[in-house]
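Forwarding the complex inputs:
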Amino acid sequence: MLSPHSMGVIKIKTRQDKKIIFLFLLPALLMMTIFLFYPIIRSIYKTFFIAVHNINPRYVGLRNYLKLIKDPVITISIKNTFIFMGAVIVFEVGLGILLALFVDMIKYGKQFFKTVYFFPIVMSAASLGLLFRLLYNYNSGLLNSILEYFGYEPVLWLDAGKALLMVMIPTIWQYVGFYFVIILTALTKIPDHLYEVAYLEGASPFQRIIKITLPLIFQDIRVCLILAITGVLKVFDMVWMITQGGPFDSSQVLGTYMYSTVFERRLFGYGSTIAILIIVLGIVVTAITNKILGHRGVTIN
Amino acid sequence: MKKKVLLLLVLALVFSVSVVQAADKVTLRVVTMFAGADPVSEVYQETIEQFMAENPNIEIIDESATFDDSVKVRFENDFAAGNEPDITMYFTDAQAAPIVESGKVVPLDDLIADGVVGEGILPSVLEQVRYEDGNVYAIPITGFYEGLILNVDLFEKYDVDYPTSWEKLVEAIETFKANGVTPMAVGLGIIPHYQIEHSILKVGGAAAHDAGFENGIHPMWVEGLKNIKTLYDMGAFQKDTLTQGWEGARALFKQGEAAMIVEGSWAIADCQNEGANTVTMIAYPKSGPLGNPTDMIAGFTSGMYMSKEAYNDPTRQEAVLKLFKTLTSPAFIKKAAEANGGLPAAKVTPEGLAQPYLDGLKAFQEAEHISLPIDAQIPRPAWTEIVNGIAYICVGRRTPEEVLQAAYDVYLEIEGQ
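Prediction (whole assembly, two chains):
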């Protein structure tokens, strides 16, 4: 067994050391305070006011919270956000894992697939959103042009029944590569001898994945799931570019509803209340996810 | 060695600062709407460049932008946070509140009376931009008029009369529909503003249109919104109107696939699509018993504001006044009106206007009554409630009464009643 010293880890013992650590942490703490904690506290404060155009705020007590409970668009937005969440768990993380497993098995072209799957990440969601908006366009969009070429009637891709699905597709497509790369990196940590032993003992490729690969990368999958789930609460740009939450709020998510409340309706107090709801939901959902997933998983020893 | 380098750097810094101070250069931050596709942006850039060439001691930081909602909020917050530009072109209607009530812009009445600013500006125009506290804070450049822009080529091709009455409008819709042409390009999903105000004006008349929410919901507003549903049910709009915004509607018109579009004078240049479509503008037809065929929505709803901070600073007052006077001068206003075909705020006559602008101006001059748009009259959150409700009304998921009641409730909440 190696001692911490022999591994290059120095134990913090003295008060002087603690001061140095605090000094090193201070800049980050200051940044977090200025750009995260202060705005959150300020937002909480604003929830108790009606502030049109962010001027002349009028104290209204808990009225914004009562409005939040009664607001039917909030119900739709929360429902859509959770549908989105389910979709990203299954398709974003799920597809990321599948693709990583497949690419890990191949001998040649790993780098090519890595680049191809990761590429959408480097593009901005706004430009991708615009691209997909044009793809879905009823009159001159690519999809309807193809349908018309083959003699089919054009389709209203962004009607109330399909709008949410149509914004989920590019969002998921964009982020699959992100989780693919995380999982692929995790797979490289698994020593080959484990697979060799399994192979010698007659385990099928499927069994090897289920019994060796997945348990060993469980902690990485867990991180991916938490990132994906919390990421959904921040979904905004793609939805805004494609549907702006419509038609009839059918593709409204919390991020777009907060934006339109502040930037279009100019209701800063109510917009802040929606922002606080997003933060609370984020904390609750992350806590539940952690609780469900726990710290299972197997370590290589 | 290091010490010498450091010493040199410090000396260079001190020298550069003293040079700047000696030159006494004044920096002015300016924000206008003359950017992007705005027809005035070229004229504005030329004016700014010429001004800087003639005044080497004044540096202009130009932050002009296309004013979408996020940009508007950015500048509203700039005013709230004390980071206001020295000269800001912004709205003078109901949207002016965050600028004026921030207390950071100069009331101009005394300066106008003393002839310091506002040379040649029409008094009636100044009256239109007077804020509710009785002061004038902004000097307008050009005004606008709204109406029905027609694709003349399509009207001639299908031998359709211009829709100067409701009957003719219905006839035009039927003919274009029968020929596979979208009769009217409208983005009901996002920003159907112009359709709303024209329907209310031409169904209920100017008095109803201009009623605001002071005395409750005007019954003619209900009828006006019902009229949009009538047009929707007739199939007057493009098939994807519920998911479209104004850009999509305008694109459809520009591509020659729609025969009519309700828009403002600022859109005429874009709608012509570089000559591909011949267009004209007429007053939106009378669509109900109380409407007037000639009434139009027009006016001045934006202008140049000057910050108190720059004006009260003795080192910058002269510079900011000089630029403010240049940007509100009759010469600049004439150039701007020639570029965007809008109504000049000063006593000048724009020259060389293209036919669609002349048609629009003629309709404006013949109007019996001119109204400011509804969003210039009621608070923004209440207006947005109506805008967002239009698609719901058209498909029958909400009634005009319900949508207007929701907007009125928001109005009451804002007013603290």
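The interface with chain B takes residues 50, 52-56, 58, 137-140, 156, 158-160, 163, 243-244, 246-248, 262-267 of chain A (CB under 8 Å).
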